[in-house]
Every structure is written in C-alpha cells, then in structure tokens.
Automatic annotation (TrEMBL):
<keyword id="KW-0812">Transmembrane</keyword>
<keyword id="KW-0472">Membrane</keyword>
<feature type="transmembrane region" description="Helical">
    <location>
        <begin position="161"/>
        <end position="178"/>
    </location>
</feature>
<dbReference type="Pfam" id="PF02544">
    <property type="entry name" value="Steroid_dh"/>
</dbReference>
<keyword id="KW-1133">Transmembrane helix</keyword>
<dbReference type="GO" id="GO:0008202">
    <property type="term" value="P:steroid metabolic process"/>
</dbReference>
<dbReference type="InterPro" id="IPR001104">
    <property type="entry name" value="3-oxo-5_a-steroid_4-DH_C"/>
</dbReference>
<dbReference type="InterPro" id="IPR039357">
    <property type="entry name" value="SRD5A/TECR"/>
</dbReference>
<dbReference type="GO" id="GO:0016020">
    <property type="term" value="C:membrane"/>
</dbReference>
<protein>
    <submittedName>
        <fullName>3-oxo-5-alpha-steroid 4-dehydrogenase domain-containing protein</fullName>
    </submittedName>
</protein>
<feature type="transmembrane region" description="Helical">
    <location>
        <begin position="118"/>
        <end position="141"/>
    </location>
</feature>
<dbReference type="InterPro" id="IPR016636">
    <property type="entry name" value="3-oxo-5-alpha-steroid_4-DH"/>
</dbReference>
<comment type="similarity">
    <text>Belongs to the steroid 5-alpha reductase family.</text>
</comment>
<feature type="domain" description="3-oxo-5-alpha-steroid 4-dehydrogenase C-terminal">
    <location>
        <begin position="118"/>
        <end position="294"/>
    </location>
</feature>
<feature type="transmembrane region" description="Helical">
    <location>
        <begin position="92"/>
        <end position="111"/>
    </location>
</feature>
<dbReference type="GO" id="GO:0003865">
    <property type="term" value="F:3-oxo-5-alpha-steroid 4-dehydrogenase activity"/>
</dbReference>
Length: 294
C-alpha cells in the first residue's frame, strides 16, 4: 500500500528527485529568514503574532512526522523491491533515528518546564525538513542503499560502523546533558519562587508563570565555552550516524548539511540575543557554537 502513489514510499526516480531537492534547494532556502531578515519566530526570538502556535503542541506535530515517515517507508518499500530481510545495519541505523526522535519529538517538549510559541511558518519549515529527511533516509535504508551483507562490507566495514555508533551515542548523551542544563535553569527558578512562601495554590500559579520567558546565561559543561553546545553535540551525533552509514551515504550528508545550515544562523543570532539581553561583559568570551570560529 502506498500513501502517495510513487512518492510515499518513493520510486527510485522520485527518490532521486526528492534527494536533489533536499541536498541543494533546502539548504539554500531554509536559513534565509535568519541570515537575511533576522526573523525567526520561535524560542528566544519568538514575537507576538496571531499566527503563533503553542510551543509544546507545535514542537511535537512538526517533529514526530519524521520518524513516523521513516518507519512507514521501512515497512513498505522493501516488499516493493522483493527484499524480504534487510541486513542488521539497516535496522540499527533506523533504530538510531527512532531513538533520537522519540526523545526530540515526544519527550523533549514534555520535559521542558515551558516553551515559547512557534510561528506557523517556522512550524511548516520544520515539518518540511522532517518529511524530506525521513523520506530520503528511509528510502536509502529500505531499498536504495546497501541491502546485502556484501554491500555493507564495502559501504561501511564493521570497525567504522562501530566507531560511528560510539560517536552517535556520545553526541546524543552530550546533547541531552546540555538540554537538561537549560531545563534546570527554569526548574531552579520554579523552586525559588515556591520557596518564597505563597499559599500552595499561589505557588502553582507562580511556578508555572515564573518560568515563561525566564532566561539565564547557562554555565555548566560546554556552556562554559559556548552558548549553543547542545547544537554542536547534535551535529556530532549525526556525524557519527554518517560515519556508520558510510561516507558515500548521500541522505546522511544532506541531513547533516541541512542541520548545520538551519541551526548555525540560529546560534549566531542567539549569541547576539544574549549580548543584547545580558550585556557583552556577562556573556564574556563565549563562542556561539563552534569554538574558534563562531
Ligand atoms: N532549532 C532547530 O532548528 C533545531 C534543529 C534540530 C535540532 N534541534 C535541537 O532541538 C533542541 C532544542 O533546540 P532549540 O533551538 O529550541 O534550542 P534553544 O533555543 O536553546 O531552547 C531549548 C529550550 O531551552 C529553553 N532555553 C533556551 N535558552 C535558555 C536559557 N538561556 N535559559 C533558560 N531556558 C532556556 C528554551 O525555552 P523557550 O522556548 O522559552 O525559548 C527551550 O525550551 C536542541 O537540543 C537542538 O540541538 C534544534
């Protein structure tokens, strides 16, 4: 069964077309609003608008279609190509993608003490990111990449695959650690508000309201050196995935390139936001996201 005949899952010709779009058109278009007009309607740079969506719901609905699409393509495409058993490497890589997005799409918004609204345009761009990425990676893993043990031996020998996995998990853990540091800022604030001794009903109100829009300069871990280490760690994670998938895996390259293209301007603008909000002296010599470069 196809959800969209010839496109989802994609035929080989359509896979080639979608991949070209993902490799070349998306990186040119997605970062434009941030570099050119300096606007990005989410998080710190969210502005009041009638087109804003509630942060948590917007985050879940823009991120979750990615891993659901990948699972759907993995389930349907192999049979269309007469493949009845995929090598373990294809399943492990699909598993890594699902592990990451179970955290990012489902747990992350639930764990955040509060999230700023997300503009519907940012939501739509992120949804496009997820659908293009999952279709390309899913199709490569399900049929159009290596699908035999011999093909894998040439694509990514076992030591390379294992090292890629280790890098992926190191990036994932470090990304979670730094996300957690940001959450802790608002939890601490919540606790402080509660200790200030209101009635328990007022406490709840104060606790919820107090965290909204509350920001500090984070200091723990790699935050000592940069303001967006969680972004850098996520790039390390997907570089590990690319290493495991093999250096010729075009969808994994496109994923990493698009991540950097969309997150780098956010980090650079984010640093300007910190300087404006807290002053140059308090931000000190912290880099935005790549020590020594940005
Ligand atoms: N943005 C992207 O394009 C993108 C793409 C792929 C993956 N990711 C990953 O998704 C995760 C979140 O990304 P993001 O762009 O939303 O990161 P972010 O702007 O740093 O915000 C992360 C969360 O922490 C809060 N927060 C941020 N800075 C804070 C501070 N100084 N003090 C207190 N709370 C603070 C934010 O609250 P508010 O919402 O209220 O600002 C938000 O809930 C990261 O791990 C990133 O690697 C992001």
């Amino acid at each position: 069964m196809s959800l969209l005949d010839g496109w989802l899952p994609p035929t080989r010709a359509h896979y080639g077309l979608i991949l070209k779009l993902w490799q070349f058109a998306y990186p040119a278009v997605r970062p434009r609003p941030l570099w050119v007009i300096g606007w990005y309607g989410m998080g710190k740079t969210s502005t009041p608008s009638r087109l804003n969506l509630p942060g948590r719901a917007a985050w879940m609905t823009m991120e979750a279609p990615g891993f659901l699409t990948l699972l759907y393509v993995m389930r349907t495409l192999p049979a269309q190509h007469g493949i009845d058993d995929l090598p373990w490497q294809n399943r492990v890589l699909a598993g890594l993608f699902v592990i990451h997005y179970t955290y990012r799409a489902l747990l992350f918004p639930l764990l955040q003490p509060s999230m700023a609204p997300i503009h519907v345009l940012v939501w739509a761009m992120a949804l496009g990111f997820q659908l293009l990425n999952a279709t390309c990676l899913g199709a490569w893993l399900a049929a159009y990449g290596p699908v035999t043990a011999d093909a894998w031996a040439a694509q990514s020998p076992l030591p390379q695959f294992a090292l890629g996995l280790a890098v992926f998990y190191a990036g994932l853990s470090a990304n979670f650690f730094h996300d957690e540091e940001l959450r802790e800022i608002r939890r601490r604030r919540q606790r402080r508000e509660q200790q200030q001794g209101c009635s328990s009903k007022d406490n709840n109100k104060a606790g919820r309201g107090a965290t909204t829009n509350y920001y500090e300069i984070p200091q723990a871990g790699l935050f000592r050196y940069m303001l967006f280490p969680h972004y850098l760690c996520e790039w390390v994670e997907w570089a590990g995935f690319l290493m495991a998938a093999g250096w010729s895996c075009a969808p994994a390259w496109a994923f990493l390139t698009n991540e950097v293209c969309s997150m780098l301007p956010r980090a650079v603008r984010g640093k300007a936001w910190y300087v404006e909000r807290f002053g140059r002296e308090k931000v000190g010599r912290k880099w935005a996201v790549i020590p020594g470069v940005w």
